[in-house]
């Protein structure tokens, strides 16, 4: 049966840190399995001074040096990935903030998935104000895969498919099956309900079990009652030694989104297992982009 959901174009923003290089290995191997195109982007930060005479670049020579250095590094990465994985690779430089850069690529290149490296546990300030990976999770207009720096595998043999909300369940099911097939893996279906929503979640859980059976998909399943969905999902993933967790793009757009008990922030901070956040491509995000950059969008002419 042909999958409704495919992964044909993967974007990975890279800053040449160890966590982004680690994520690049995962993204490259994933592109190879899915026969997908891999786009690697890097942001060159540019600062401007605005005066009566107009806007001027601060340290234009330094900007040029950083641009040349980044171009050289990207070229080396592209050649290395072509030789090692035999995949289609494109590299690009940008000066926009990371969210605008990603969403421009989602629209122009039909990106199916953004892959980002994360450092795992965040400081309290980052938890409240939002880390780079958290901002991408919220505002990227396509699915996002967060790879913790401590995750050293390049395949996803054990896939955890939690059901805690009704959002994107069909797409999550298709992606779970797709990942299982591409990785020769298996699916763990987990229903997680708190007392207030247990009936609603259990109904979705039972329906999804039937859907997986109709698609002739092998899976294991269990339903757990919990007052802390993030904690129980992370614990089950650890106990079952899962390689990836699929989550729906649903969050409480309330004061909790700015505090440490936000579901997604707790998941990022509470597990060293990759998180695949499923979104409909080009989905309109209601909340405004958090400030992640103070740079102008204009890049000076090079050369």
From TrEMBL:
Residues 7-148 form the UspA domain. Pfam families: Usp. Gene3D superfamilies: HUPs. It comes from the Bacteria. Coiled coil: none annotated. Belongs to the universal stress protein A family. PANTHER family: STRESS RESPONSE PROTEIN NHAX, UNIVERSAL STRESS PROTEIN UP12. This is Universal stress protein. It comes from Kaistella flava.
């Amino acid at each position: 049966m042909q999958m409704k959901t495919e992964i044909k174009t993967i974007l990975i923003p890279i800053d040449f840190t160890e966590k982004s290089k680690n994520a690049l290995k995962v993204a490259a191997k994933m592109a190879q399995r899915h026969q997908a195109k891999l786009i690697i982007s890097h942001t060159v930060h540019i600062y401007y001074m605005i005066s009566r005479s107009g806007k001027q670049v601060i340290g234009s020579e330094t900007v040029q040096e950083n641009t040349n250095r980044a171009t050289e590094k990207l070229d080396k990465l592209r050649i290395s990935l072509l030789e090692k994985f035999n995949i289609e690779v494109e590299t690009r430089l940008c000066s926009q903030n990371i969210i605008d850069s990603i969403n421009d690529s989602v629209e122009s290149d039909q990106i199916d998935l953004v892959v980002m490296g994360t450092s795992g546990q965040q400081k309290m300030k980052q938890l409240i104000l939002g880390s780079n990976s958290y901002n991408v999770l919220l505002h990227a207009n396509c699915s996002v895969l967060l790879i913790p720096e401590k995750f050293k595998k390049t395949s996803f043999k054990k896939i955890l498919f939690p059901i805690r909300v009704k959002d994107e369940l069909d797409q999550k099911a298709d992606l779970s099956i797709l990942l299982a097939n591409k990785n020769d893996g298996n699916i763990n279906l987990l229903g997680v309900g708190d007392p207030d929503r247990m009936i609603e979640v259990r109904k979705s859980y039972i329906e999804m079990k039937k859907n997986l059976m109709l698609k002739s998909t092998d899976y294991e399943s269990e339903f757990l009652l919990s007052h802390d969905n993030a904690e129980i999902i992370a614990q089950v993933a650890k106990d079952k030694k899962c390689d990836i967790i699929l989550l729906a793009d649903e969050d409480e757009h309330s004061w909790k989104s700015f505090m440490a008990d936000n579901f997604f922030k707790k998941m990022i901070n509470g597990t060293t297992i990759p998180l695949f956040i499923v979104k409909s491509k080009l989905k309109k995000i209601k909340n405004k982009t958090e400030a992640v950059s103070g740079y102008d969008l204009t890049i000076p002419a090079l050369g």
